[in-house]
Design a protein that fits this description.
The structure is a single chain. This protein is α+β, with helices and mostly antiparallel strands. It folds into 2 domains: 116 residues, no CATH class; 95 residues, Alpha-Beta Complex (Ribosomal Protein L22, Chain A), CATH 3.90.470.20. The protein is built from 7 helices and 10 strands. A hairpin with a 2-residue loop joins strand 1 and strand 2. Helix 2 crosses helix 4 and helix 5 runs antiparallel to helix 6. It is globular, with a radius of gyration of 17 Å. It starts with a helix and ends in an 11-residue tail after the last strand.
Length: 251
Amino acid sequence: MGGWLHDRVSAAWWRVRVGGLACWTERRVGRPAPPAGRPVTTIEVSTDVVCAARRTHRVLADLPVAASDRAAVTGMPSWRAEEYLAARTLVRTLLAEIGRPHDGPIANRGCGRPWIPGLPGVGISLSHSAGWVAAAVSPGRAVGVDVQTPVEVSAEVIARCCSAADAAGLAALPDSVRALEFAWIWSTQEACVKATGAGLGGLPWTVPVAPGQPGGSWNEVEWVALREHSAVPFSCAFTELGHERGNADDE
């Protein structure tokens, strides 16, 4: 592996191991538990963009679920209902954090992008993956968030999502490290196209993200990979209102 990529990925993996990611614990060195009286640790990625990620069961155990959300899951399989309830409960918690509490319905546009009737200009996004949920909100920007639990991926998928040099570097990593690093890359790519409202139609695999990269920009979108804050790959992206399509947000 080239020295530049090796240094970046090795440094990222060292932080992961020191921070506890390798053993998949929710508490990590360098990341405190939520403050007393606050069941969720929120992360401010910009002056008006906040996000959070937490295990699904902890959200449902620690936070109140809105009656409108409970009504919406009637007839859903239990696993889907849990994802739905936890993601929207986390969104509502963040809305309260920014002074925009909302107990009413969270609606979807077009292909599924969530929005809040009655709160114009408030951007929201949500995501879930294998027992984790993430959410982002902003009082004045379009946002995208994505959480990804690492899984093995084929060389073909990596080649589609990464440059040739980065794909070669990832191929040289141990399987578990490669899966983790690719999950970070994919979470960023997904978050970016969610922020634009394009979803998968925005071709997330074309968003340039290097292994170990903590943040950057793509077109009109700014993004941050929450490597220092999260036990699971979790990224947030945001853009000015008017730069998004507003019609898709794949969870």
